[in-house]
Amino acid sequence: MKPMNLASPLHKVRGVGVRTAEQFALAGLHTVGDLITFLPRRHEDFSEVVAIADIRPGKMTIKARCEKISTRPVRRGLRLTTATLADDSGKLQAVWFNQPYRTSQLADGSEEFYFSGEFEFNYNRYQLTNPSVEKVKDMPVQTDRILPVYPAIKGLKSQLVRKILAELRPLITMLPESLPKSVIAKERLVARSDALLGMHFPEGASDIERARERLAFEELFQLLLASQLNKRENAKLTGWHIPFEQPVVAGFVKKLPFDLTNAQRKAAWEIIQDFEREVPMNRLLQGDVGSGKTVVAGLAVRQAASAGLQTAVIAPTEILASQHAETLRDLLEPLGVRVGLLTGSVKGKTRQLLYENIKNGSVDIVVGTHALIQKSVEFHSLGFVVVDEQHRFGVAQRQELLKKSDHMPHMLAMTATPIPRSLALTVYGELDVSILNERPKGRKPIKTKIWSPNSRAQLYELVDKEIVAGRQTYVICSLIDDSPDNDTRSVEAEFKRLRGSVFKHRRIGLLHGRLKPEEKSAVMTDFSEGKLDILVSTTVVEVGVDVPNATTMIIEDADTFGLAQLHQLRGRVGRSSHQSYCFLMMSDSSKPSERLREVERSNDGFYLAEVDLRLRGPGEIYGRAQHGALNLQVATLADTRLIARAQRSAKAFVESGDELAGYPQLAEQVQKYQRMTTLS
Predict the structure, then answer these.
(1) pTM, whole model, 2 decimals?
(2) Which of 18, 295, 388, 526 has a beta carbon 3.0–4.6 Å from 531's, enabling a disulfide?
(3) Could you tell me if 168 and 35 are in contact, meaning their C-beta atoms sit under 8 angstroms apart?
(4) Are residue 314 and residue 396 in the same domain, yes or no?
């Protein structure tokens, strides 16, 4: 083989022809480095293959033929494939869920396969559940080894990946180190080359364990080091000095129609202290739904305005921006603070006048979408920026804001999705964190219940009683229109059905993302003013919509929603002293998932965030694109012990004065993380 390096194209590797190179390219693998860092999603232990007669409960591998196989739908969205496997010692039942392709793979009946899976008692019989399948003829002659199984992206076969990696094994042994030697020594980690060899060519379970520890540590170290360096860069900036004016703050609090919670008082004091420092604030205010984040932000805005500084409040949607503007006007305009709203609906002369008022300082606070950081918006004295709903600004946006101000504005990010501690340490590591974990006084916990479609009539009776009592109801659907591909209820169809049958005597509104801004605004205004009894909506109401009189919510096809989203949606009710209810309507009468059970059991968003991380991983919390950008193949953000170790090492590296320039591979990934701008 010709000398190779990580940048060499894969078609230069022995055994990779044009067709094979195309297969790799479809899976996003173009270079030798891409393939070497393409890690197995799991390992199968074929070192012990047992006869069917000797099989026992637990993880097992057998060598067998498939005598019979069939696939059938058992309920909407679930197809069950069942097979009879046989060897010379006996027969065994195997099942796969939603893997109908197994029928064509195994239908021949004459070939032998290795089946590796969990042997357990299920559905009143012993069976092999969801086993992996490998052709015997594709396996090494000696089966007494642990084999890596790679992600089957675009049909990429593990056998092919293993074959080409075997050609690259000499190169892997010579890979340069990517972590500082001091870190490797202190944390007792294996070398990077040994870790990759351990993942691709393990000789035993301990090789895999040490490899995973090393590679997971490196992924977390990169992420945490980026946070540490961002924090250090922020400390070099000069912000606006906003002195604490006790009478101003006391005046704001006195005018509130309710008492602040202790958590709100603490968070507000942390912000006020940040304002007095020379370094610009970089703080995350995380609070459960309905915990009163906007009031805390309003208090900070009042303090900034008293110092002659303007505030920009940036929200992800027009509905949320309008809601914030209305709330902040109620809180601040009686105190002489002037509030403006800049969204796509503001046009023509009104928009131009708003631009002028922002520029000459006639407006103290401007609420809007990301349009606020466009060049056409010029501030008179921008000193404070509030970013709502997990939208975070990176280097590029901070520079745009800096151009609009003499100093870097203070930054407050707000999120209603409670963030697990491990995420706060890693992804949000450069932010100081304030937590609102108390509900405002007088608000009762929302009663949540899972409902079967068979009991729909009784549910509608309960909802109608609430309407008779003068309350209002949300009905949430995930789709706008009916789809031929699934039976999930759509808002359009549900709106027509409810209006034409069970609730034809009630006033019903329809809300979804395809409506024009003015139509959305009109529907929300009617619902807020009590002109509608029921609002049938998509998840566009997930954040920001605040109608205290709405006390019931039905979430249709609740089993198709993520845990965090269910909790967010539920937060639209329970916003007054009236008892509120959230009904999780299943799409069928099957057994509810653990996810739904947890939402039914708990109103604590911080507890549910930890559950969400355990059940679904960080991808659900960030969105897939952002999780992909995190480049986490091995590390899990639920591993708090490893995070603590990586954080300690990252801090020590920054404090040692060692420069990233000496570690080019590490520097490249860390700088990429430093540039990441949004986690939503």
Answers:
(1) 0.70
(2) 526
(3) yes
(4) yes
